[in-house]
Amino acid sequence: MTVAALDLGRSRIGLAVSDDSEAQVFPLGAIERRGGRADFEEIARCLRDYGVSRLIVGLPLNMDGTEGPPARSARAFAERLGDGLKLPVELFDERLTSFEAEDRLKGSGTRRKANKAAIDAIAAAVILEGWLAARARRPIID
Question: What is the C-alpha separation between 95 and 115, in angstroms, rounded?
Fold first, then answer.
């Protein structure tokens, strides 16, 4: 099963996918946000060839675990996205994913400003890696 993750930002949405076995995660890139249906259509276009069966949307919780306006916005986006793409959507805590993404890019030799889309895509990959790891730790219930 291929799973995709989204890192929602004000300007861009980072995208990442797993392979069919869910053993590897690949950052795809980022799309520029235009709003509403246009964002959903662009996400669908980017994911079309991957056979995605589930979407994971980063939930930007406050550091104390509470939800503020960005988290409520992500919840609403995730619900509309699932309805629009006819796929199940789960939310996953994305605290500090952008920092981890920046850290992964530090030695790459490219400037941070030129790498904003790459950071967003890697942040989506970090979200997906976290979701896959958490899922692997869940007990199997018959």
Answer: 20
